[in-house]
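Q: Hi! First time doing this. I have a protein sequence and I read that you can turn it into a structure. Is that right? Here it is:
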Amino acid sequence: MKLRPPAFPFFLMLVAWSTFALSPRLVVGSGLIVVVTWSVGIGIVALRPDAQLGFGLPGADPTALAHYLDPTFIDAAAWATSVFTACLITGILAVVVHHTQKLVAAQARVERARDNLARHVSANLVEELAELDEPFGPPRVQDAAILFADVIGFTGLCEGRSPQAVMAMLRGFHERMAGCVFAAGGTLDKFVGDSVMATFGTPKPGPRDATNALACARKMLASLDAWNNERRANDEPVLHIGIGLHFGPVVLGNVGHEQRLEYAVLGDTVNVASRLEALSRDLQTSLVISHTLIEQIRLEVGECTVVGMQRHAPVVVRGREQATDVWILAERVCKACPPISETEVTTAA
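A: Yes, that's right. Below is the predicted 3D structure, encoded as structure tokens:
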């Protein structure tokens, strides 16, 4: 009586449970186990000497009904229906699991691709780039803080050193500088040799972009000091960097070819920040920032005195005719830079 059709759906629960493994083979295997187990049970009863074989439900005859309810009666039609139902449900679930498995694999590939993309593009740009339908979408203009950091005298540091040692030094520098950018909430735009470009306020502007940019520059200098202490202990040459910061409007958008795109931040603000970084050599300081960025910091955090910074006389950066008001980090003298020229320095109020 346990092998009658009302008990059969409980066998199908084995097939249902197997779907959680997301394996079509396991689903098919479970279906076969159900069919074989059920059929073996029916077969054992059918081999009994007193077994009675019949097809279908009996009519209204009380004698036929009693015959159907006899434990030795075997309904071949019910067995065939149960087997067909098990095969049909198993097939459907196997197809569903197969498609689900493909979707999971596709999602895993997407996540892996995003992880790989994050190694080449700043992490907070990955989601935005992944959601773009048109690779050459319309560019947009917004305000952002731009930071450039470059190793001073990198060519001389490389002289006489093996390519492996140079690569190890460069990787150590990039790793520490990138960590400072991410810790300050910035976007790592690119590495260009021994130079680092970072943006603050991209892809979406924030309430403290200029403040975060200056905080990042200070983190970079502190991180470099700690690393230089390790390098001195290992009898390795120390590194000096120059940092330039500027704030202003930039253009954001994709440039390049459809098969090789780059999410670029362009504009005069970027050029000025790069020139200020190069100017750090002449001003014999590790950090040069524009007065525009100082003003933006005061708008973000209120009137304040930027600790450690001194206002320098306006300077003319390469490629621009109009002089630029700059501030320098006077408390940190760059020993790798040439002697400072005779320029007026006034302490900020």
